[in-house]
Amino acid sequence: MTQTPKMAVGIDDIAVHVPKLFISTLDEFARARGIEPAKLARGIGVERMAVPDAHEDAATMAASSALELMQKNDLLPEEVGRIYIGTESGVDEAKAIGTYVIGMLERVYGPGSFQECSTVEFKSACIATTHALENVAYWLKAEEDENDFGGSDCGSCQSRGHVGIVIATDVARYELNSPGEYTQGAGSVALLVKRDPRLLALDPSVGIFTRDENDFFRPIGMKCAVVNGKYSNLCYLAAMDGAFYSYKKRALGRGMIRLDAGECTTDHLSHIIFHIPYPRMAEYAAASIFRREWKDLPRWQEVEEEIGPEPRAEEYEGQKEYLSAEGDYKRRFSKSSKFLEAYGKKVKPSTLISSSVGNIYTGSIYLGLASLLEQSLLAPGERVGLGSYGSGCSATFFSGTVQAGVESMPKGILLKKLDERVEISLEDYRLLHEGERPDSVIRPSGEFGLIEIDQDGYRRYDFVG
Ligand code: CAA
Q1: Distance between CA 429 and CA 368 in Å, rounded?
Q2: What percent of the chain has pLDDT over 90?
Q3: Which residue has the least CA distance to atom 13 on ligand 1?
Q4: Which residue lies with its CA nearest to atom 39 of ligand 1?
Q5: Tens digits of per-residue pLDDT, 65-113?
Q6: Looking at ligand 1, which residue's alpha carbon is closest to its atom 32?
Q7: What's the whole-number mean pLDDT along residues 294-305?
Q8: Residue ranges lining ligand 1, Cβ < 6 Å
Q9: Atom of ligand 1 nearest to the CA of 228
Q10: Separation between Cα atoms, residue 403 and residue 194, nearest integer Å
């Protein structure tokens, strides 16, 4: 049995901006790097990576997704009280990226149109947007609680700034020829956050895990991340596990989820969207959490019948032998029919768009939500779990309940748009990656563009008609 919150605040709509350019990982790229295409398709799960053109950066992508969100919802600037942005590829060390975004939006809506909208840039690696979302939700709840002093202009006060826009925007960039290279990508996701949302009402229980780690970081001035790849996978899994059990404790403790005999918490989540640096990582996270969830339940017997019992440390000569057996068991569990069924139903569909866009860092989890929406997989009343991870490291596990409005939301448009992108050559990809191509591969049209960065660092953006 599941309970839903009394006052619904959450995600009303999503707009995604992905660069028009992409590189296929399976052809020229795989040959040039001497990698079997099957490794990238199955071992990593990425077939295409979005590549930002010369006129694009985190700010232009954020402005593009925000504009699309506003236009499709007929939103007026004065209705937007907050534009909070999560990014780990910000364009300035001091000036908030949101001021550039507001500057660009005002080129469409008129000068000063967003002057009563506040903006903050959140940085916490890939979890930043989740913190931004949480803060906008708190702001909306606080506004709801505010006393109405009965002033004469109260009606119009309430219609001003009554929604928030949360934007995730990132360019995931690693060194050429590094193992991180095939997990790059770029894009932006804008979320309309409001009371009585059409799509997903956020639940009150949130699980958190934080620990100081150096799995992935980007020192000031560096264009590419410093990453200890395999270790970052382990940090992700440990943090996700910690955040999930923190969520579970809180959700069960407050009676938001109630378990019948033989049930576990994930049985009450119709979909689970894990942070998707590459689709395979979501599979590792699912295997780790389902295995721990199922271990004490009657269904574990079925798993053991198929793959045998878990290795026990005392049965092995040393730690090394035990860890090797444990690694082997982990692989067997992730191929077991019980896991494959749960993974295929609850987790895999959220990775669809990421497999053709790549990592968009702080937006990837919300791209997962867009994947479910685009495939018409969300039904009213379903509970969706979201596991957000940020290197460094921290994780947050939270959930939301799908609202009735989902049924009237358009679907399939983004998937169609992704099909219309243009594949570029490996040489154009290299030039764009290294910042050696001054002109755009496709001249910007009907979109925001970075026009110039002058010698003093002034950035000039415009809406190119
Ligand atoms: N066919 C099918 N599968 C194959 C294969 C083939 N021919 N060849 C290899 N594989 C499989 C491997 O067996 C492996 O799968 P298993 O784990 O099931 O064994 C899988 O492909 C990956 O291969 P490797 O183990 O050789 O890993 P790699 O050297 O390619 O590195 C990586 C992978 C560590 C993710 C690297 O791409 C990387 O550093 N990426 C950037 C960091 C990252 O994304 N970390 C994720 C956690 S941190 C985070 O989430 C924050 C963030 O957004 C960055």
Answers
A1: 25
A2: 93
A3: 43
A4: 229
A5: 999 999 999 999 999 999 999 999 999 999 999 999 999 999 999 999 9
A6: 229
A7: 97
A8: 36, 38-39, 42-44, 126, 179-180, 183, 216, 227, 229-230, 232-233, 236, 275, 277-278, 281, 359, 361, 389, 391
A9: 39
A10: 13
For residue 150, the model assigns a pLDDT of 61
Spatial separation of the C-alpha atoms in residues 392 and 156, rounded to whole Å: 44
Reported as a single tens digit per residue, the pLDDT across 136-193 is: 999 999 987 665 566 655 555 556 779 999 999 999 999 999 999 999 999 999 999 9
Q: Classify domain 9-464 by CATH number.
A: 3.40.47.10
Q: Ligand 1: which of 183, 228, 273, 326 to mutate, judged by most atoms within 8 Å of the beta carbon?
A: 183
Determine which residue's CA is closest to atom 16 belonging to ligand 1. Answer: 43
- To test the pocket of ligand 1, the residue of 227, 351, 396 to mutate (highest count of ligand atoms within 8 Å of its CB) is 227
pLDDT for 414 equals: 97
Tokens 């002057």, located at residue: 115
Nearest CA to ligand 1 atom 1: 39
pLDDT digits (tens, 9 = 90+) for 397-441: 999 999 999 999 999 999 999 999 999 999 999 999 999 999 999
| Token pair 């919150």 in the structure block, residue | 5
Given this model, what pLDDT does residue 195 score?
96
CA dist 133 and 201 (Å) reads 12
Could you tell me if 18 and 50 are in contact, meaning their C-beta atoms sit under 8 angstroms apart?
Answer: yes
Ligand 1 atom 46: residue of nearest CA: 233
Report residue 45: phi and psi, to 5°.
Answer: 95, 15
pTM score, two decimals? Answer: 0.96
